[in-house]
Amino acid sequence: MKKLLMIFSSLLLAGTVNAGILTLSGVYQGKNLYVQNPFTGNMKDFCTNDVYVNDKLVMSNIQSSAYEIDLSHLKEQEPVTVKITHKDDCKPKILNPQVIKATSQFAFSSFHVEKDKITWVTKGEKQNGKHFIEHFVNNSWVIVKEIPGKGSVIINSYNEPAVSHHSGLNKYRVKYLENDGQVFYSQVLEFVSDLTPVDFYPKRVTDKIYLSREAEFELLDAYGNVVRKGNQKEINMSDLTTGVYYLNVDNKTFKLFKK
After folding, report:
1. Verdict on whether the full-model pTM lies above 0.70
2. pLDDT (tens digit, 9 = 90+) per residue, 26-40?
């Protein structure tokens, strides 16, 4: 029994080693990060366990006293969050954190999504900035409206009609683009719509598709090319060739066949 207790205690101690997380957020500005990676307390292992960039594992089991985090796969001014997991008796040191620090004073003060409107408040805007309302549709962020910035360094308020809800759960965010290329994002908000889900008929089409209500849609051919796009209840397919098509509507994708 004593031996079993000793083994269990050793396992508990081993589980506490990987306890630390070092996090740094900013925007990618064309430069990589450099990290000093000390030994652990036992002087046998290096401190860092894993490195994540925007929640994607990019490095693991690093066996060197210093290393470089490659950010070159990101776009200029793209938001970036670096997380370094490390053992609890040491701490890595990022040597040049300033290379991803944003120089702008811009910030979102608030952001709200309602049934009939989307509102947000900003501070620190520069001249000639732009706002973009983005809606998460078919697993990607889609710009639904562009709004010119008010260009003031004090507080600015925006109030825009919400016209793009689909049925069920919706996700929105606002992107702000400064004239020098820096990009900022609001938090992501969810809104549950009471709209009736869209259905359609027939599944094997001769001339037209009929939607159960007016809705924004995209019709794609078998190769992913958009062949129809709009906001209506009827979709004419009489001039399209025979084959498989995909209908994106109401945040869903349906497969159909044109006779």
Report:
1. no
2. 889 899 999 999 999
